[in-house]
């Protein structure tokens, strides 16, 4: 074969391995998190799932999860809106790791869950994922009067007991969405709690026992720059919530000196790596973490 007229392969413009690479022609090669699984009834957990479109204009879906033994519309279940992580850039809401985790969580907690998919950077830079997640919240809230497009939410979701759950970058998004709620109230949609798991917050200066390794910090900062090219840096409010923001507006957690009188609990899993509870969901620490989180949805 004569390759003299073939186009040369595009050069890598930005290497954010082991997560992804951006090529000079604009193509993004994701190195992890590309698998997806369809919704299904899971016999191990007796949880059923179904995909629904919440944003036709952006072709975005959410996956609904419900315990199979739910058959009494007079007994409403707490509603958990879950926003996934991946540094804003990798994974899908329908990745098998997440699918399996949410099946288990829904089974143990006896809740209805709405797992939100969103557009990914760098093709769709931050704050696109934030905007999509807000659109998903509004779509969920459209079921408050029992007249929404999805019967599971109309019949079984308790909109007086709504929780937002976010991990990694999803925790970042969840924080910003709950901060937005007091300014843009969704009638009848009562968010009473938030779970932030291994949240993707960052800043120029390390906090607590956060790594001080220069190479590691540079790698994380490079990923943030790729996800949000217009950022002012690692002290941007979108990545560092302690810059120019009062946490007093966050109506479902209390941090010291925030000015809000709620309650918060910190779950620490000593010696475990980032998102270990997703990667090793049956390990002792992951089980212990779920046993703390699951009852939280039924205590309020």
Automatic annotation (TrEMBL):
<dbReference type="GO" id="GO:0016787">
    <property type="term" value="F:hydrolase activity"/>
</dbReference>
<protein>
    <recommendedName>
        <fullName>Alpha/beta hydrolase fold-3 domain-containing protein</fullName>
    </recommendedName>
</protein>
<feature type="domain" description="Alpha/beta hydrolase fold-3">
    <location>
        <begin position="80"/>
        <end position="250"/>
    </location>
</feature>
<dbReference type="InterPro" id="IPR013094">
    <property type="entry name" value="AB_hydrolase_3"/>
</dbReference>
<comment type="similarity">
    <text>Belongs to the 'GDXG' lipolytic enzyme family.</text>
</comment>
<dbReference type="Pfam" id="PF07859">
    <property type="entry name" value="Abhydrolase_3"/>
</dbReference>
<dbReference type="InterPro" id="IPR029058">
    <property type="entry name" value="AB_hydrolase_fold"/>
</dbReference>
<dbReference type="InterPro" id="IPR050466">
    <property type="entry name" value="Carboxylest/Gibb_receptor"/>
</dbReference>
């Amino acid at each position: 074969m004569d390759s003299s007229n073939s186009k040369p392969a595009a050069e890598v413009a930005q290497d954010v391995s082991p997560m992804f690479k951006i090529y000079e022609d604009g193509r993004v090669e994701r190195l992890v998190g590309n698998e997806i699984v369809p919704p299904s009834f899971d016999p191990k957990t007796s949880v059923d799932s179904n995909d629904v479109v919440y944003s036709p204009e952006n072709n975005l879906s959410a996956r609904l999860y419900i315990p199979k033994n739910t058959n009494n519309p007079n007994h409403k279940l707490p509603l958990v809106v879950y926003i996934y992580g991946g540094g804003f850039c990798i994974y899908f809401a329908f990745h098998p790791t997440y699918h399996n985790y949410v099946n288990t969580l829904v089974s143990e907690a006896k809740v209805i869950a709405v797992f939100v998919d969103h557009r990914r950077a760098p093709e769709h830079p931050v704050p696109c994922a934030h905007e999509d997640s807000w659109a998903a919240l509004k779509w969920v809230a459209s079921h408050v009067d029992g007249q929404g497009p999805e019967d599971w939410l109309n019949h079984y979701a308790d909109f007086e007991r709504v929780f937002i759950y976010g991990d990694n970058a999803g925790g970042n998004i969840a924080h910003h969405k709950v901060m937005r709620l007091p300014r843009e109230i969704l009638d009848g949609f009562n968010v009473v709690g938030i779970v932030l798991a291994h949240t993707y917050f960052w800043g120029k200066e390390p906090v607590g026992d956060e790594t001080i390794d220069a190479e590691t910090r540079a790698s994380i900062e490079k990923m943030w720059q790729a996800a949000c090219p217009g950022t002012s840096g690692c002290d941007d409010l979108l990545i560092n919530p302690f810059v120019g923001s009062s946490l007093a507006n966050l109506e479902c957690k209390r941090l010291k000196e925030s000015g809000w009188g709620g309650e918060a609990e910190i779950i620490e899993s000593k010696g475990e790596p980032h998102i270990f509870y997703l990667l090793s969901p049956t390990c002792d620490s992951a089980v212990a973490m779920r046993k703390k989180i699951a009852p939280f949805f039924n205590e309020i």
